[in-house]
Q: What sequence folds into this?
């Protein structure tokens, strides 16, 4: 079934309200989930409500957090998320980075004591409308990536997002996990009974795994690149870089060692990193945007390997999905509808998608 974004937002709001979440957290969480679903990033849309319910039921979530800035300079800040979902502290952190960049040319804000924050691109894309470049990274609450030549997961899927303004048209937006695929894509494949592509996941002895249901239980994803012979060490290195920026810089917990180092911690303490950069600190106003537009135009005009397949740049597929889903609604599978209904029934939230 296809559901208008407004109806889906209302349903998610009703569920989060029944959980006892405060209004600001609800608004931020729904905003970022709908950002993802409208752009076809279904792994980070309303499907994440199952994960958030897991946090809630295991008492690992502050439903009404008190978010505060705990360190600050003219160009930097540290935000404490108080153990809530990551959407609200992340929106506030990126707004603060943008404000500082507007004043000083650059703004860098770190977030600690947070949790899953949805699609990283939602935050990076806040910068281009202000004429700024946005760069965002995040750690995760549990290990998912197996280091090259390893057999156990040690790093999160650790996303990177980068967005930049152009003179005309939508911004450039790169949003990627440093695993070959995001874990929620593996979960979606399991829900739909689909096999995984070889090189997406590994079993307990380090061999490729294509059974999606088994991969959901194993949680051993390959770094970007897949296998060592496909240069997985590069994805492994990027995931480690993200962990440094998101976890080590903010003083958050490294998920792989959290059970031993912090066995009694009441929350996951996930970290994020946000940067806003003003091109006008480097060039005359408008020059960056014009040159970037020319570059992207040249890339899209690359001679095609196949006549029917145009050459795209990062963000193009999401813009197509945004136009389609804004017009026709967001498609929800039968499995997703059933899952949402069960979540609502469990807490007495009204069902609005009938």
A:
């Amino acid at each position: 079934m296809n559901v208008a974004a407004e109806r889906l937002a209302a349903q998610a709001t009703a569920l989060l309200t029944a959980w006892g979440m405060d209004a600001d957290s609800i608004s931020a969480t729904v905003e970022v989930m709908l950002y993802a679903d409208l752009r076809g990033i279904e792994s980070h849309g309303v499907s994440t409500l199952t994960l958030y319910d897991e946090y809630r039921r295991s008492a690992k979530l502050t439903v009404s957090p008190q978010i505060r800035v705990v360190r600050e300079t003219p160009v930097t800040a540290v935000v404490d998320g108080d153990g809530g979902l990551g959407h609200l502290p992340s929106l506030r952190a990126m707004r603060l980075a943008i404000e500082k960049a507007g004043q000083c040319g650059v703004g860098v804000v770190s977030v600690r004591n947070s949790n899953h924050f949805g699609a990283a691109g939602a935050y990076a894309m806040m910068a281009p409308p202000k004429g700024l470049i946005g760069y965002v990274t995040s750690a995760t609450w549990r290990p998912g990536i197996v280091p090259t030549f390893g057999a156990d997961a040690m790093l999160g899927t650790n996303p990177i997002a980068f967005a930049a303004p152009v003179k005309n048209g939508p911004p450039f937006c790169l949003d990627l996990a440093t695993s070959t695929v995001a874990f929620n894509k593996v979960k979606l494949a399991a829900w739909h009974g689909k096999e995984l592509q070889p090189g997406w996941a590994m079993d307990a002895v380090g061999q490729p795994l294509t059974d999606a249901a088994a991969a959901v239980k194993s949680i051993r994803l390959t770094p970007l690149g897949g296998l060592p012979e496909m240069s997985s060490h590069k994805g492994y290195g990027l995931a480690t870089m993200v962990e440094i920026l998101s976890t080590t810089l903010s003083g958050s917990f490294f998920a792989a060692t959290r059970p031993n180092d912090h066995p009694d911690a009441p929350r996951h303490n996930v970290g994020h990193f946000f940067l806003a950069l003003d091109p006008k600190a480097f060039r005359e106003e408008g020059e960056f945007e014009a040159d970037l537009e020319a570059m992207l135009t040249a890339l899209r005009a690359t001679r095609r390997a196949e006549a029917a397949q145009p050459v795209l740049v990062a963000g193009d597929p999401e813009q197509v999905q945004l136009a389609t889903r804004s017009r026709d609604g967001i498609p929800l599978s039968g499995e997703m509808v059933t899952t949402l209904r069960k979540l609502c029934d469990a807490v007495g939230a009204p069902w609005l998608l009938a």
